[in-house]
Amino acid sequence: MKKLIGEFLKGLIKENPTFVLALGLCPTLAVSVSVSNGIGMGIAATFVLIGSNMIISLVKNIIPDKIRIPCFIVIIATFVTITELFMKAYSPALDRALGIYVPLIVVNCIVLGRAEAFAQKQSVLSSIFDALGMGLGFTLALILISSIREFIGAGKILGFTLIKGFEPVFVLGMPSGALLVIGLLLAFFNLLKMRKTCK
Amino acid sequence: MQISIAQLLTIFISAVFVYNVILSRFLGLCSFIAISKETKPALAMSFAVMFVIVMSSILTWFIYRYLLIPFNLTYLRTISFILVIATFVQLVEMAIRKFAPALYRFFGIYLPLITVNCAVLGVAVLNVDMFFLNGKALPGSFVYSLFQGICVGLGYTLAMLLMSGIRERLDLCNVPKPVKDFPLAFVIASIMSLAFMGFNGFKF
Known about the structure:
The structure holds 2 protein chains of 2 kinds. Chain A contains 8 helices and 2 strands. In chain A, strands 1-2 form a two-stranded antiparallel ribbon. Chain A has one domain. The mean pLDDT of chain A is about 85. The longest helix of chain A has about 30 residues, at about 125-155. By secondary structure, chain A is mainly α. Chain B is mostly helical. Chain B is built from 9 helices and 2 strands, in the order αααααααββαα. Chain B has one domain (about 35-190). Chain B is about 70% helix and about 0% strand. Chain B is globular. The model of chain B has no long low-confidence stretch (mean pLDDT about 85). In chain B, a hairpin with a 2-residue loop joins β1 and β2 (about 135). The two termini of chain B are about 20 Å apart. The interface between A and B is large, with 42 and 43 residues.
């Protein structure tokens, strides 16, 4: 049990997929215009991660080593299609907002990376916990970036105005704002890491 | 089949400048940040990506038009596209290794990376979204898809060349340690994206 909790917790901060491993940055930047989009993308990616990690760790002994990557991709793509259809059926607004980035979860490096680095070697239960932790870490990173961008870029969080009379800086809602925010955040986390090693 | 020059020009401007794959759509960002340290590998990667994007636009158009639509299987779009792209890249890699070892040495290691490059799948999905309506191919959709593939590849090359040129120069500068490498690359990309925003509103 303790090991499982460890697998779960490491994805949140110590091996955060976005800030520490720097994986899956394309969707992170593209959908982080608003917090609700960020949460939607995070949940979709977490679902795909859990499903694919579970199936891959179940069939890891059957898959020949040489063609494992295509097999993984097919499994992942199946779950992405499930997510896509679900989203189209139950929240078409979110589907329109995320656009082509939903099918692009297939090529999100986090999912394939976890399959390759973790699920194909470990038991089913720890793979699920690993996926849960990584998915949550990804969602947290998305919430962090999107709340910065939505607050400064549009003056709102989840659609609510926080400070009356705050003049939003529109650039942060634009693509260039996304790149700027992620660059500065990465620098900030680097600085924290350096402070830690110096002490 | 009618193809209007104005439409082609619009596709060109929007794919290369206004909605540049990297700077405004954020596709293929990982390779953009990782391989843009020097001009030569950046150029090799760009050509490899361009080739794969163009070929995959052709392949996926045929699959969507003649396989998925007639059999009513359009919901299998994502799975079939990624499979085709992965197989195609593998085939190209084997062929190049066998027939052109010099070329293989030139961009051999970048080819397998392209399978998971979101730009390739992104363009395939984008083509389907733009040039097919309610399960029917719009007139001239094949030429438009092909042309969009070429233009997106050009846009990728442009961003890659600019970025690698800037980063080569920055190597000589003394920057604060926490900002070095990736964070700096993102900030530069942000400024470049800001400049590309100036192309907004170009219309024909």
